[in-house]
Design a protein that fits this description.
Number of helices: 17
Bound molecules: S-adenosylmethionine
Strand content: 5-15%
Distance between the termini: 64 Å
Order of helices and strands: HHHHHHHHHHEHEEEHEHEHEEHHEHEEE
Length: 435
């Protein structure tokens, strides 16, 4: 019961207060655990995640069975119904258990108590009609917010937009970036070594229980997120700065390659995570809490800018993103990204490289952002990315020579071992020689 109530609350807060699920359900967020033990927290997370992953399907199924719509002033009824329907439709909870718990939760909340019989009837009907509900559900039309579906149709075309939305339905992979010996770690952990060098697992085990975690041999990072840092070609004696570094996945790659790394982020809290990650990984960096726009230092050989963005490329991992983001969020992000790119360029030495990346599917934050940066900054040119630098994934290199990954790429017949976060990256080089 406690896990279902926590899941309902997390879904409600995501949808009404735009509060990310991770804020409420993160394993380490002690003050927000709400008294749940680790098992209940994992269950709450799995219920809340699937509720948001399939929110459109669930809402449509509920709406069709609520003849007069959701009663007004019915307290937490809506959230209770959503998580119970998620359990009935997508998790292996027996229908009667999901219905009974939902009815109990409805009775326990004074505002929704008068609607306990309604909750019972609606959820039983959903259980009866499960097959029809699932067969008629469409990933793009039902489980994708209309504004995002429209954008992806315009940007990628109907068929790719459909593949992206279909990829979002599957549970994500667990990808690891390893310091060395990807095939060996893939074998030890029962996963596969991807052509890009990441190790891919489909385990549900907590990561800290996996071999190599304590020894700092690897860190969790989507296979697509592991690509941008290497485009700087980091190595010993190279001075690099990561301007938006926390929690440090990409900076760890730079440091593991032997580069002398400065990690900058404006969030002191997130830099604490970076410091803890680096400690476990036995890696070092100079950590600077600062707004990158105000950061000053002698010019670097390489600059990585993993800019704040809409994060629409991470919806498979974070289905809440799809419902939390609004069309109006894009413009301020695009403005900040442009300022950060210009700043990144000033921090590179002559001949130095700048890699700009975002985990977004939106061209304003990716392709168009870089085209505009090149127009604004005649002292930089694009250094095209080649497929051989990213494990031969030719489909991820655009005509202009940028990196564009989509959630539907690297797909196999096993969805739990398929897909990539949606990322964009471009590599620029500043004119001139080492100064
Ligand atoms: C996409 S995340 C970075 C992820 C990180 N590169 C990694 O691989 O783990 C973006 C980061 O930018 C930081 N950020 C946003 N605006 C910033 C600014 N003006 N200056 C510095 N950091 C900023 C946020 O705190 C956040 O940690």
């Amino acid at each position: 019961m406690a896990a279902r109530v926590a899941a309902a609350r997390a879904v409600a807060e995501a949808l009404t207060q735009s509060r990310p699920l991770d804020d409420r359900l993160a394993a380490g967020a002690a003050q927000q655990r709400g008294g749940l033990d680790a098992r209940d927290r994992a269950l709450a997370r799995s219920i809340a995640t699937v509720s948001l992953r399939r929110l459109g399907t669930i809402r449509k199924a509920l709406a069709r069975r609520l003849d007069k719509g959701l009663p007004r002033r019915s307290g937490a009824l809506e959230w209770t119904l959503i998580v119970a329907a998620a359990q009935i439709l997508f998790l292996d909870t027996p229908d009667h258990a999901a219905v009974d718990l939902a009815v109990k939760a409805t009775r326990a909340d004074p505002a929704s108590a008068p609607f306990a019989a309604l909750a019972n009837a609606v959820l039983r009907a959903i259980g009866r009609d499960r097959d029809a509900i699932l067969t008629s559900s469409d990933p793009l039309d039902d489980d994708t917010p209309a504004w995002l579906a429209q954008r992806w149709r315009t940007t990628y075309g109907e068929s790719v937009a459909r593949l992206i939305a279909a990829a979002h339905r599957a549970e994500p992979t667990l990808d690891l970036s390893v310091k060395r010996d990807a095939p060996g770690w893939a074998e030890r952990l029962g996963g596969i070594a991807l052509p890009t060098g990441s190790v891919r697992l489909d385990t549900h085990k907590p990561v800290h229980e996996l071999e190599g975690y304590e020894a700092g041999e690897w860190w969790v990072q989507d296979a697509a997120a592991a690509l941008p840092a290497r485009l700087l070609r980091p190595g010993p004696a190279m001075r690099v700065v990561d301007l938006c570094a926390a929690p440090g996945g990409k900076a760890a790659e730079l440091a593991a390659a032997g580069a002398d790394v400065t990690t900058v982020d404006r969030s002191a809290e997130r830099l604490k995570l970076l410091a803890a990650n680096f400690e476990r990984l036995r890696l070092t960096s100079e950590i600077v809490v600062a707004d990158a726009l105000a950061f000053e230092a002698p010019p670097f050989d390489g600059v990585l800018l993993d800019a704040p963005c809409s994060a629409t490329g991470t919806i498979r991992r974070h289905p809440d993103v799809a419902w939390i983001k609004r069309p109006g969020d894009l413009a301020p992000l695009v403005k900040l990204q442009a300022e950060l790119i210009d700043k990144a360029i000033t921090l590179a030495r002559g001949g130095g490289a700048i890699v700009y990346c975002v985990c977004s599917l939106e061209p304003e934050e990716g392709e168009a952002q870089v085209a505009a940066a090149l127009r604004r900054n005649p002292d930089v040119r694009r250094l095209p990315i080649t497929a051989s630098e990213i494990g031969g994934l030719a489909e991820c290199v655009t005509q202009a020579g940028d990196l564009r990954t989509l959630p539907c790429y690297l797909w196999t017949d096993n969805p739990r071992r398929s897909g990539l976060d949606g990322f964009f990256a471009a590599r620029l080089v500043k004119a001139g020689q080492r100064d």
